[in-house]
Structures are given as C-alpha cells and as structure tokens.
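Look over this today:
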Amino acid sequence: MGNWQQVLKQSVTTVDQLIEKFGEENIDREAVQNAIDKFNLRITPAALETIKEIGDPFWQQYVPTPEENEVLDGIVDSLNEDEDSPVPNITHRYPDRVLFLVSPVCATYCRFCTRRRKVGDPDKIPLNQFDSAFKYLRRHKEVRDVILSGGDPLMLSDRRLEYFLKNLRAIRHIEIIRIHTRVPVHLPERVTDELCTMIAEFHPVFVNVHFNHPAEVTPAAEGALAKLANAGCPLGSQTVLMKGVNDDPAIMKELMQKLVKNRVRPYYLYQCDPVAGAEHFRTSMEKGLEILKALRGWTSGLAVPHFVIDAPGGGGKIPLLPQYIEEISDDEVVMRNYAGELYRYPLPKELVLASIL
C-alpha cells in the first residue's frame, strides 16, 4: 500500500470524529448525520489542517452542517448531466468533447459538490461499465477532447489510470485528454514521481485542478503542482464562487496570483450551481462581476479567469462580463477602461462611409 493510501486512512469520516475534533457544541449530531447519509463525509489530514476555526472558509467547504438539509429551490441534477448521458459514465453535451466519469470517490468530499447525487456511490458511478463508454467514444469521431472526472480520477491506482489513458490514446480522433482533480489540495501525497512519469507517456494530458482560497495553496500543494508541471502537464484551475468562502475581490486576486506563480492558469470562476444541499453557498451574480472587475486590468491577464454560469438544465457554460462599452455610434465606440476612465475608439472610415451610402 502506497504512502498516500496510508494518509487517506487517517481521514475524518464519522460524526463521532467531528465531535471529537471540534466539540459537541459545534456539531449537531442528528442534523450532520442526516447530511452524511445523503452525501459522504471524508476530510483528509491536509484538508483538516486548513481549518483554523469554526465557520472559516475551510470549515464551510468540508464540514457538514444542518443547512445541507434545507432544500428550498435546489435541483438534484442541476446541470442535467444524466439527461445528456447516452451510455453509463459519459456525458456528451458539447459538440467535440465529452465528460467521462472514471472514479466514484474523492479524497475529501466538498459540501458544495454539484455531483453530490452520485459521488461517493460506486453503484451510481459504476466501475464495471466502461466497455460501452469506450465503444461510444470510438464510434463518435467528432469527439476530440475527453475530460476524466468523477469523483476524482487521481484516486485511482496508477495502473487503473493508465488503463484509461492507454485506451483513450488508442482512439485516433481523440486529441486531448484532461484530468480534473482536487488531489493537490486534499491529498498532495498522491502526486508521486511514478504517477507523473506515467501520465507523461500519454501527452497531451491537461490537468485541471480546483482551488477556492489562497490558503489552499500550501507548500505541499505547490510541490504537487510543480511535479505535474515538470512532467509536461499544462495546468488550469477552476474555482467556485461561494458566500463566506471567497466572495471577496482581495481574496480572489491573491488566489489567482498564487496560482499563476505556480504555473497554473486560472480557467473558470463558477457562479455556484443551484444544487440541492448546497444552496447556502450561493452568492449574487453581481458579486462575481465585481470580483472580475477587481481582477481585469488590476493584475495580469494570465490571472483573470472566465466568470461563467453553468446554465441549469444543461445549457452549458455561459460567460459573464462586466459592462465596459458605454455606446456604439456610427463613427465611434465609447468605452471605459478597467479604472473607469472614458475612451473613444474611432471606427474605420470605410465602415462609416458604407453606413452613409
């Protein structure tokens, strides 16, 4: 058994362990057990170490609370993934790329998880139904990009992950493979030299990580990111905007700058999905636009993610932008820059003449 598997065994997985760690006055046993019955509990030592006090951004992300049981208008499958699943474990929504669920488990279960309806349950992300998935991918020649997700693909053994990478590389029309993982944050011990060497055999393999707060970029996480980058994996990051966790321009700016420093390109900033059990994390759309305005122009463009809403009902990712254009007339565009200053851009004369004629 590898070192990372031994570390995983030291995780918090029960209400009793939560009470022992945080005190009976801070854990509502019945309500928390009810939440765990609906969605697994596991907090790795690395994730646990980030929690400094009750209610801080990491407590909120990892410790089940009674709020999870309060479903108002949340949707179980908020992105309609199951409707877009032609065969088990495959979601095919966009023209040239598919989502391939290859693992039912995560190192730590984030309480805001969009896929909480099935993550942690091997019956819902079955490990014995991959033949139909590979058959589907071989048949659909328009697919050039496959995203391995779950659960977390890096929770698979090296040999099992190699099985997926090898089979995907054998399909000639698949050009890009992506691995989506939270392991560098929650279980950095998993990112071994052997894993990175194996992944490098199947390039181009992109690795998209998931960081929500600058304090998650620990020295151990930085070491894991460096190994992946040194193995030739282009790194991107996805972040979920959450109330009380990171809905603050200064926090988000620090996070994005830390990611770029570690060779991770911020990719998406998600408006929190309206998923049942995670409604208490949601913020206003205006807050996301405020954060984007605090990034664009005030820091490197490399550190500015796309702010998107993953449209409920399976509409895909829709980008949202602050309004910079004030007016478009026949002969010029009037706009404001990042600092709010007004500028005018003259339209080409031939366009102006054409509109006159």
Remarks:
- The chain has three domains: 3-67, 90-319, 325-356.
- The mean pLDDT is 91.
